[in-house]
């Protein structure tokens, strides 16, 4: 028996599972905070799930989720900048290193984040959406209000600059598991 | 080919550094599918709003106190006690600090009716 609703829900689970690591990686690259990355990825996926269940799948689930993640990441960065002094006091009152700090201490992540931060904002955004988000050039262009040709140019420029900025690769490279 | 190799190397390195744990990815996907929303971190926001409210309240109190002190200030110039004596139709008002006011009847023959107050 053909059950389109059931098939759609199975598809949704597969899409969510495939999107989750890419969203987390994208937000982590922009915020440098693993906890924030997971929170924003979860929010973006929850919004996608709601949309899928109420009005059916969007034209591009990837673009839909990354649009939300991009907007919430910008908000989180702005909020963090505003609340930094209060957060500093709040965290000082609670002893012990945070999970984020422990993660950030990993040398390779720190090196990659530092190199990414030295890229131009538009170049970095385009490159992250392509390399980590795995979005097609056209969707990146729509997301960043640009053209596919400009996106290609930005990504190429970002890669060249990153190759020059990243230090020599040491041992212990992590492999991606999907 | 070298460019292609370098491109792949950079992409792979960025992906590998940022890749989350499988457990984290599964947890995030499962919670999203369960419809769980992440609560906004309200504690710092609450603290910020509280501090702003306290500052506004203190400013309001300061404004009220200052404005009252300005209104009350002229009262210091008023004499604390007044002695009023009558000499015929003339009233003499004398304060403890030596100032004196003389209140007389209106001058005859003139059209107006007025009082002359002369501080001395």
Plain-language structure description:
- With 178 residues, chain A is an all-alpha fold.
- Chain A has helices at residues 4-31, 34-55, 61-93, 99-104, 107-117, 121-131, 137-143, 148-165.
- Chain A is globular, with a radius of gyration of 18 Å.
- Chain B starts with a helix and ends in a 17-residue tail after the last strand.
- Chain B is an alpha+beta fold and 120 residues long.
- The model of chain B has no long low-confidence stretch (mean pLDDT 78).
- Chain B has helices at residues 2-18, 22-33, 42-72, and strands spanning 82-87, 90-95, 100-103.
- Chain B has three domains: 1-38, no CATH class; 40-78; 79-120, no CATH class.
- The chains are: A mainly alpha (178), B alpha+beta (120).
- The A-B interface holds A 12-13, 16-17, 19-21, 23-26, 28-29, 34, 37-43, 45-46, 48-50, 79, 82-83, 86-87, 90, 108-109, 111-113, 116, 127, 131-132, 159, 162-163, 166, 169, 173-177 and B 6-7, 9-11, 13-20, 22, 24-29, 31-33, 35-38, 43-45, 47-48.
How do the helices and strands line up, and which of them pair or pack?
The complex is a heterodimer of chains A (178) and B (120).
Chain A: H1 4-31, H2 34-55, H3 61-93, H4 99-104, H5 107-117, H6 121-131, H7 137-143, H8 148-165
Helix pairs in contact in A: 1-2, 1-3, 2-3, 6-8, 7-8
Chain B: H1 2-18, H2 22-33, H3 42-72, E1 82-87, E2 90-95, E3 100-103
Antiparallel strand pairs in B: 1-2, 2-3
């Amino acid at each position: 028996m053909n059950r389109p609703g059931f098939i759609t829900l199975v598809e949704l689970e597969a899409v969510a599972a495939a999107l989750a690591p890419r969203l987390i990686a994208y937000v982590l690259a922009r915020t440098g905070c693993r906890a924030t990355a997971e929170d924003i990825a979860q929010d973006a996926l929850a919004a996608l799930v709601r949309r899928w269940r109420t009005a059916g799948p969007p034209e591009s689930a990837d673009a839909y989720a990354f649009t939300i993640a991009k907007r919430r990441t910008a908000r989180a960065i702005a909020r963090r900048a505003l609340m930094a002094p209060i957060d500093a006091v709040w965290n000082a009152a609670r002893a012990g290193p945070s999970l984020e700090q422990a993660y950030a201490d990993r040398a390779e992540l720190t090196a990659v984040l530092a190199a990414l931060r030295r890229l131009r904002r538009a170049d970095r955004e385009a490159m992250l959406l392509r390399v980590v988000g795995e979005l097609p050039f056209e969707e990146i262009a729509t997301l960043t209000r640009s053209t596919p040709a400009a996106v290609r140019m930005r990504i190429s420029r970002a890669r060249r600059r990153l190759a020059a900025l990243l230090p020599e690769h040491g041992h212990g490279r992590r492999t991606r598991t999907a | 080919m070298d460019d292609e190799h370098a491109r792949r190397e950079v992409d792979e390195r960025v992906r590998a550094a940022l890749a989350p744990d499988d457990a984290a990815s599964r947890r995030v996907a499962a919670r999203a599918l369960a419809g769980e929303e992440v609560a906004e971190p309200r504690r710092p926001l609450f603290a910020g709003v509280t501090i702003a409210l306290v500052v506004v309240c203190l400013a309001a109190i300061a404004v009220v106190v200052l404005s009252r002190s300005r209104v009350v200030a002229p009262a210091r110039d008023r004499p604390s006690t007044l002695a009023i004596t009558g000499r015929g139709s003339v009233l003499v008002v004398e304060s403890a600090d030596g100032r004196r006011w003389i209140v007389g009847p209106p001058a005859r023959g003139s059209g107006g009716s007025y009082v002359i107050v002369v501080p001395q």
